Amino acid sequence: MFGKGSLSAPFFLAALIVLLTTKYGPLTLPGAVVAAAGVGFSLFGLNLPAAATGTLSATVSFAAQATVGICPSCTLAAVFFALAGVVSSLCLVRDGRSVWAIALALPLVCSLSFFGFRLHPKPAEKIGAGLQPPAPVSSSVQGKRQVQAQETLLLYYSPWCEYCDEPLRAFIEKDPEGRSWKPVVVPYSSEGEREVREMGYRGEVLSAPESPGRGFPCLRLPDGSVFVGKKKILDFLERSGFSSTYR
C-alpha cells in the first residue's frame, strides 16, 4: 500500500506530537498541518515533497529561533523535521535524484550554522557578567519611547514560551507595578501584553526584537548580567531578596 521512503514518517509524527503537546503559538497550527502532510507524503512514497517539507520546515524554524530567541520545544520539533527531511533526501539519492537532495540540504545547513552561532554564548554571558551596555528596548506603548539606559531588571519572554509563566508570575507577585523590573515581550504582540496583564501586572510593558540571552525566559540585570532559563531566574529571585524596592 505504502511506497518507499516511509521511514521518515515517524519523525514527522514526532514533530506533530511535540507541536500539539506544547504551549500554543501562532505557528503551532501551520506547523502541525505541515507535519501531518509530511506523514502522508512519506507513507505514500512521495519522497521529494517529503524531503522538501522536512528540510524547509526545519530551515525556517532554526532561522527564526536564531533571529528571535531559542525555544526548546521549537528546537525539538525542528530537529524531528530535519531528520525527516534527511531520511527522505537519502531516498532521493537512492532514486538517482541527488541534485534535489543537495538543493534542499543547502538552506538547512546554512540555517543550522546560523542557529549554532547564535546558540554559542558570548564570553560575558558565560561568567554571568555583561561586558556590553544593554541594548535599547523600545516601549510597546505606541513605540514612542526608547530605554537608553537600563536601570531596572528586564525579563524577556515570549507569549508562546511554556517556561516563562512561572518567572513572570513570581515577579508580578513581588512587584505588580513594575517599579524595579519590566517585562519585555519578544517580539511585541498584543497576546504577549495581554498575558502579563491577566497575571495582574499593572506597569509598563516593553518590547524588543530578540532576547539578549538567545533563549526564554531571559533576565538581564542593570550591570548587563544575563540569566537564561526558568530555574536560574527563580534562583536569582530567591537569592536576591527581590521586592519592589530592589536596586
Unreliable residue runs: 121-149
Main β-sheet: number of strands, strand sense, barrel status?
A: 7 strands, mixed
Note the total helix count.
9
Structural class by secondary-structure content: alpha/beta
The helix/strand order is HHHHHHEEEHEHEEEH
Q: Compute the separation of the termini in Å.
A: 67 Å
* Shape type: elongated
Strand line-up in the sheet with most strands: 2-1-5-4-3-6-7
Radius of gyration: 21 Å
Estimate the mean pLDDT confidence: 82
The tally of beta strands, per DSSP, is 7
Strand content: 5-15%
Could you describe the 3D structure shown?
- With about 250 residues, the chain is an alpha/beta fold.
- Helices cover about 55% and strands about 10% of the residues.
- The chain contains 9 helices and 7 strands; from the N terminus they run ααααααβββαβαβββα.
- The chain has a 7-stranded mixed beta sheet with strand order 2-1-5-4-3-6-7, with helices on one face.
- The N and C termini lie far apart (about 65 Å).
- The relative contact order is 0.13.
Keywords:
53% helix, alpha/beta, 9 helices, 247 residues, 7-stranded mixed beta sheet, elongated
Please give a quick description of this structure:
A hairpin with a 5-residue loop joins strand 6 (218-220) and strand 7. It is built from 9 helices and 7 strands, in the order ααααααβββαβαβββα. Residues 121-149 have low confidence and may be disordered.
Give a topology summary.
Layout lengths: L8 H13 L6 H16 L3 H22 L3 H23 L3 H22 L3 H4 L10 E3 L6 E2 L5 E5 L7 H10 L6 E5 L4 H9 L7 E2 L10 E3 L5 E3 L1 H11 L7
Parallel strand pairs: 3-4, 4-5
Antiparallel strand pairs: 1-2, 1-5, 3-6, 6-7
